[in-house]
């Protein structure tokens, strides 16, 4: 297949390359998440026990979770989301302002301004998350 630039169509090799990229990136980020999940679970055995009990209750002992019962794993989901909050995969996020904005504090931000958001700072801000924002295993 040839690339059709006018219609933005990928040829077969480009599609395969994109699939490989998704696979490698997905594998790496999932591995990183699981690595960071084990840290707080190792420090807070009670949450590890709660997660294990929930998986046994929802899935049955020695049975893998299925797509139709993943939504029932509330504690596991809570642990994964809290891990992503405490240890975000992207430490920085950028955004560009599309139109002039006046913030409630009186600050004017002009269109075209690039904002750099430190996700780790946002995810550990006690004004947003409460006094225990920096305590893993809360």
Provide key terms for this protein:
138 residues; mainly alpha; two-stranded antiparallel sheet; 5 helices; 4 strands; 10% strand; flat
What would you note in describing this structure?
With 138 residues, the protein is mostly helical. The chain has five helices and four strands. The chain has helices at 12-43, 45-59, 74-86, 119-123, 126-129, and strands at residues 92-96, 101-102, 108-109, 114-118. The strands form two sheets. It has a two-stranded antiparallel ribbon. A two-stranded antiparallel sheet has the order 2-3. Helix 1 packs across helix 2 and helix 1 (12-43) crosses helix 3 (74-86). The longest helix has 32 residues, at 12-43. It starts with 11 loop residues before the first helix and ends in a 9-residue tail after the last helix. 3% of the residues are buried. The mean pLDDT is 87.
Proportion of beta-strand residues: 5-15%
Helix and strand sequence: HHHEEEEHH
What would the principal axes of the Cα set say about the shape?
flat
Number of separate strands: 4
| Structural class label | mainly alpha
- Mean pLDDT over the full residue set: 87
- Strand order across the largest sheet: 1-4
**Total of DSSP H or I helical runs spanning 4+ residues:** 5
Oligomer: single chain
User: C-alpha Rg, in Å?
Assistant: 21 Å
**How would you sum up the major sheet?**
2 strands, antiparallel
Low-confidence stretches: none
Q: What portion of residues is helical?
A: 40-55%
Distance between the termini: 54 Å
């Amino acid at each position: 297949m040839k690339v059709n630039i006018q219609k933005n169509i990928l040829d077969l090799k480009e599609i395969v390359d994109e699939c490989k990229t998704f696979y490698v990136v997905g594998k790496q980020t999932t591995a990183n998440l699981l690595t960071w999940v084990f840290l707080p679970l190792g420090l807070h055995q009670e949450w590890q026990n709660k997660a294990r009990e929930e998986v046994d209750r929802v899935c049955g002992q020695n049975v893998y979770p299925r797509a139709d019962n993943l939504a029932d794993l509330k504690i596991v989901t809570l642990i994964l989301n809290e891990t992503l909050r405490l240890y975000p995969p992207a430490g920085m996020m950028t955004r560009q302002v599309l139109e002039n904005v006046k913030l409630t504090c009186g600050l004017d931000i002009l269109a075209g301004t690039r904002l750099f958001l430190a996700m780790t700072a946002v995810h550990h801000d006690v004004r947003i998350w409460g006094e225990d924002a920096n305590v893993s295993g809360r």
